Amino acid sequence: MVTTILGIKKEMSVRFDQLGRRLPVTVVQVDPNVVILKKDGQIMLGLGQKKKAKKTENAFISALGFAPKYKREIKIAQAEITGSEKIKTTSDVVKTGDKITLSIFEPGDQVKVCGITRGKGFAGTVKRWGFAGGPKTHGQSDRHRAPGSIGQTTTPGRVYKGKKMAGHMGHAKLTITGLEVIEVDSAASQLIVKGSVPGVKNGFLIIEKTGKVKGYKPPPKEEEEPKEKPATSPRTDSGAAQAKGDNQKLEEEKKPQSGQSDLP
Fold first, then answer.
1. Which domain holds residue 142?
2. Sorting pLDDT into bands at 50, 70 and 90, what band is 61?
3. Domain contains 233
4. 163: buried, middle or exposed (CB in 10 Å: 19+, 13-18, 0-12)?
5. Per-residue pLDDT at 137
6. Which residue would you say has higher pLDDT here, 255 or 248?
7. What does DSSP say about strands 99-100 and 85-86: parallel, antiparallel, or unpaired?
8. What is the pTM of this model?
9. Which of 113, 118, 112, 115 is nearest to 70 (CA)?
10. Cα 130 from Cα 74, distance rounded (Å)
11. Are 66 and 7 contained in the same domain?
12. Which of 79, 109, 114, 257 qualifies as a cystine partner to 181, CB 3.0-4.6 A?
């Protein structure tokens, strides 16, 4: 089945759980994704529309009537064999032009979100990698945010690859796992995810369902009060006879006994 969908990061907000705790959440706008290409074990999803399409995208325009703004290839479930019967795969069910909506998610799902982090421009080692910098006393000057040594001398006579130095910070691909789906608003096409996700406002995101949150319990449903009170069951014959006998005994006890006068 399809477990991945494309969306746009909108804003951060808050929600409250069953215990009244305040939860930070991210609102993701997930409009219907269109299947624009299908091949063995994979499909290509498209989101949004381009104002001006390239010549290389004419194939999409002829097939769908528009050129999608975002395109990504995702993997789908392969065939499963149960006994002698072969179950149809998603690639057999999903066709080009079909739409994938938020119906694949529900509250309590665990997802991982992939996006591009915020770009912070050129940054030094203290900001980019958390270096401590040089000492502030003992004769040091202008070394407070210096990177320090970057290697040896003649041997090896070069700087090793991957050395942490100053450079461009941010604007890199990042995936955050273990996020929880708090709410699915199908009317507004919005997915409410607990916590923060990478990227700027209106940034492109890939959301993939990975399972269920451990120990998740759905909120209790409010019971509706009955509109009409149930009619009381009629008394049975045995109950009526017993009540009649009790009333007769009380009346006999109230009557004065024979041979006794009411006078003192």
1. 122-147
2. confident
3. no
4. exposed
5. 92
6. 248
7. unpaired
8. 0.74
9. 115
10. 36
11. no
12. 109
